[in-house]
């Protein structure tokens, strides 16, 4: 799933307008919207649909969809929220038997609508809603009436910067031409509900983001072959944990072991290694060659501050997590993966945390360019940026239960296994974040990270067995 900026959508639309009547795209959008609504109605005839119509073309889409619904016997009413309305759409709507209602009637009948269509604004949406509309949107949310958003839920900004403001919350968003960034990334994604993309014939350029699907993860996951051995599958070194934070060593080992490393060497301090070996007798303590190295998880304050610079200068693929992020040298390389959360990324960039959370896409790109490393920004949406690569990749999303201490340590271990198996750095980052999200989807709830890590083998095999 590719995600685009508004300016890319508008440029593609302008290109079509050079060839076709401008009305053609709106009719394609309206036809797709009407069909999506009809599929969700329990019979068209006599069903009741309310259109909440703003002043732009987004409202026009809804009105023309209303025409199609009215012709199928649906009772369609429209509340005009602005001073203006798409005039041709409005005239056709009235001619097809649609009728105007005021805000009070729209609200009084709330439980009586089978669908409320939010067409206040689409890609022209500024964040937030005027008070009467905001109150209506909140009443819809509280009542549980089915809201279908046209292109995007009004009040949500189509792309970053994201600000907190009143908006509609939809059960379904019917979007046109291409996905917008707010549909693929939080906080907008949760407001969209299910998303249906209608092809209106736009020819779009290089996407801003690529959203991975479970089938993509299955296709890219490294699977051993008949001639594989522990060395060819990849030896992962873990220099993780410390006497103060031994748990991080255990959790990174769990991530590496349960995601399928050929061999795991633990290279941390001695008392920590012993605890790891007690829990995972398959882990090796002896020094030796590794195909990837995970560092930083649970280090605490290490006295030696040169470790990261030395390892960066060596060629081995690296996962640089947690405390090691504070020791980054000036020059990095794309085969080193940084795994910050928003606070750590803010530290790396020397900005406030809020600058990262309002525009995570810009922040993760900036971090990749500035450090020269591949960057996985962890959080509700997980972004992967690589230096010199425009499109940012988004991991498969999962429930927020993984927002807990220890999840990052497991994730670092999984990423280490994938790098050790020879997977490209950015792909390894997306796969690691995605498989953890898929594990949390499969076992939702307050599951501790060590237990969730233990489900990885089942989740991976189910994914590989699934039909594409
Ligand atoms: N450009 C085109 O030809 C096409 C556009 N389409 C539809 O048109 C939309 C874009 O149309 P427009 O460029 O007219 O812009 P919109 O209709 O998305 O929004 C602009 C209008 O809404 C008002 N507005 C913006 N934010 C608001 C808010 N938060 N609360 C209340 N009012 C708000 C603005 O004052 C302006 O009048 C798309 O999202 C899509 O739904 C589709 O018909 C496909 C073709």
Protein described:
One of its GO terms (biological process) is nicotinamide nucleotide metabolic process. GO terms for molecular function: ADP-dependent NAD(P)H-hydrate dehydratase activity; ATP binding; kinase activity; metal ion binding; NAD(P)HX epimerase activity. The chain is of the alpha/beta class. It has two domains: about 1-210, YjeF N-terminal domain (Rossmann fold); about 215-465, UDP-N-acetylmuramoyl-L-alanine:D-glutamate ligase, CATH 3.40.1190. It has helices at about 5-15, 25-40, 55-70, 85-95, 105-110, 130-145, 180-185, 190, 215-220, 230-235, 245-260, 270-280, 305-315, 340-350, 355-360, 360-370, 405-420, 425-440, 450-455, 455-465, and strands spanning about 1-5, 50-55, 75-80, 100, 115-120, 145-150, 170-175, 180, 195-200, 210, 235-240, 265, 290-295, 320, 335-340, 375, 385, 390-395. Strands 8-1-10-18-17-16-15-14-13-11-12 form an eleven-stranded mixed β-sheet, with helices on both faces. A seven-stranded parallel β-sheet has the order 4-3-2-5-6-7-9, with helices on one face. α14 (about 340-350) crosses α16. The longest helix is centred in the first third of the chain and has 18 residues, at about 25-40. It binds ligand NAX.
What integer is the average pLDDT?
95
What class, by secondary structure content?
alpha/beta
Low-confidence segments, given as residue ranges, are none
This entry's quaternary arrangement is single chain
| Number of extended strands | 18
CATH class of the largest domain: Alpha Beta
Bound molecules: ligand NAX
- Taking strands numbered 1, 2, ... along the chain, how are they ordered across the largest sheet? 8-1-10-18-17-16-15-14-13-11-12
Instruction: Return the CATH architecture of the largest domain.
Output: 3-Layer(aba) Sandwich
Apparent shape = elongated
Could you tell me the radius of gyration in angstroms?
25 Å
Distance from N terminus to C terminus (CA atoms, Å) equals: 15 Å
Strand proportion, as a percent range, falls in 5-15%
Helix content: 40-55%
* Count of domain modules: 2
Please summarize the sheet with the most strands: 11 strands, mixed
**CATH topology grouping of the largest domain:** UDP-N-acetylmuramoyl-L-alanine:D-glutamate ligase
Number of helices: 20
Q: Please name the fourth-level CATH homologous superfamily of the largest domain.
A: Ribokinase
